[in-house]
Structure to design on (119 residues):
């Protein structure tokens, strides 16, 4: 499993929001921006609009579980920010993983695969 660093600095979040590519649907919003580092950095946010602390933490856990499914296929050298939506906390990690894959493909964040390796 590939390693990643967490994004904790507000300046990095703002840069990804302002300059990165994004895709959205009802479960998740994904922002992607190249960082010129040899590692991938990931930030997960859930605003207070989602609900109380229990709902926000569940939304972050669901996103993190979905991320582990695609971790090995994501290109190194990019910053990714996932923003939870209100339906994220009630969804399963497999539903979020499908949405995440579509968004990462659209943002060109997944490694190129051979035709034999496609799921």
């Amino acid at each position: 499993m590939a390693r990643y660093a967490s994004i904790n600095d507000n300046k990095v979040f703002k840069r990804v929001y302002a300059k990165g590519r994004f895709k959205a649907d009802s479960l998740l919003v994904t922002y992607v921006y190249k960082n010129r580092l040899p590692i991938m950095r990931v930030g997960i946010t859930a605003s207070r609009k989602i609900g109380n602390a229990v709902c926000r933490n569940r939304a972050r856990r669901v996103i993190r579980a979905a991320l582990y499914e695609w971790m090995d296929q994501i290109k190194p050298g990019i910053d990714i920010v996932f923003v939870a939506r209100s339906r994220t906390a009630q969804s399963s990690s497999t539903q979020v993983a499908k949405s995440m894959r579509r968004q990462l493909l659209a943002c060109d964040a997944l490694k190129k695969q051979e035709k034999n390796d496609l799921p």
